[in-house]
Design brief:
The complex is a heterodimer. Chain A is built from 5 helices and 11 strands; from the N terminus they run E-H-E-E-H-E-H-E-E-E-E-H-E-E-E-H. Chain A is α/β, with parallel strands linked by helices. Chain A has a single domain, classed as Rossmann fold (3-Layer(aba) Sandwich). Chain B contains 2 helices and 3 strands. The longest helix of chain B is centred in the last third of the chain and has 16 residues. Classes of the chains: A alpha/beta, B alpha+beta. The interface between A and B is medium-sized, with 20 and 12 residues.
């Protein structure tokens, strides 16, 4: 099983993702420069956090036109696994691989904090080893994490069990007070209809060691690796 | 020829920046402002022998595909000869 971490100019969580895959998942992983287009040797691709193209125009808007993104679309269409974290989530939305959009946070601040999120769906390759309703503590670091979508899309996401994570309080209640950025329906992560593409604003790759305040993110990568192990 | 593109958030999308700007302007004593929405403005210099109509069509495509995100934004194009 082999992982790829895509690197855009301005990505800054690429090394964190690489570190987690090599150290905690214990699998081979490559950096993939955004001008490369050959993803044939990979089983899963991570689009990492950061500020691709300086967030010019809109967060994720320009990265979508990088050559690698056409390959990511084909890669995803074949059913391969794609995980977009933070800026990666924004890029997946801009590229149309996930519905909705991420706009400026409700209170305008850049938020750098640990938050709690509730596991809403374990029916994804990224969360099947998690406990449904369980609460994970992970950091967020974004100015544009406010998830918006129209009513029809929200209905569809709910009906199809595609809301994967919701912001919540320590007790697992998805209250307005526990919603850090104003996201619709407290949405912190969603997947596509085929369930092989997931985007989330919190950083599981920065929550894999107790020294960093939480190791809850490990289960996301364990799920991912578990899916690939059974598929191979 | 010059193309001007105005990108604005759809009315249904909240604009926290516009709200903060409105608040600051009101602190200066300006009253009677019911709403401020922040948008983006692009000036595109166009070379070549295109007609205004061709330039408009091309700019509309650019605005739809790149300059705006149709999920959250509307746009308007003006051509200046």
């Amino acid at each position: 099983m082999k992982f790829g971490v895509i690197v855009f100019p301005g990505s800054n969580c690429d090394h964190d993702a690489y570190h987690v895959i090599s150290k905690h998942v214990g699998q081979p992983v490559d950096f993939i420069w955004h001008r490369d287009t050959d993803l044939r040797s990979y089983d899963a691709v991570i689009i990492p956090g950061g500020f691709s193209y300086g967030d010019y125009l809109r967060a994720g808007a320009l990265a979508r036109f990088s050559p690698v993104m056409n390959s990511v679309k084909e890669f995803a269409a074949k059913g391969n696994l794609v995980l977009g974290i933070c800026n990666g989530f924004q890029i997946l939305c801009e590229a149309g691989l996930l519905p909705g959009a991420l706009i400026r946070n409700r209170d305008l601040h850049f938020i750098c904090d640990h938050v709690d999120v509730r596991v809403e769906s374990t029916n994804t390759p990224f969360t099947h080893e998690l406990k449904a309703g369980g609460v994970l503590r992970m950091p967020i670091a974004h100015a544009d994490g406010n998830f918006v979508c129209d009513d029809g899309t929200l209905d569809e996401l709910r009906r199809e069990d595609r809301i994967v994570l919701r912001y919540c309080d320590r007790d697992g209640q998805a209250t307005e007070a526990a919603n850090p950025n104003g996201s619709r329906d407290n949405i912190a992560g969603i997947c596509n209809r085929e369930r092989n593409v997931m985007g989330l604003m919190p950083h599981p790759e920065r929550a894999c060691e107790d020294l960093l305040g939480s190791s809850d993110g490990r289960d996301v990568f364990r799920s991912l690796a578990g899916t690939l192990a059974t598929a191979v | 020829m010059k193309a001007k593109v105005f990108v604005t958030l759809k009315p249904s999308v909240l604009d926290p920046q516009g709200k903060a700007i409105k608040h600051s302007i009101e602190l200066l004593g300006y009253n009677g402002i019911s709403d401020i929405r922040q948008g983006k403005y692009f000036e595109i210099a166009i070379e070549g022998q295109q007609t205004a109509e061709q330039a408009r069509e091309e700019t509309m495509r650019m605005a739809h595909d790149v300059l705006s995100n149709p999920i959250i934004e509307d746009f308007r194009v003006e051509i200046e000869e």
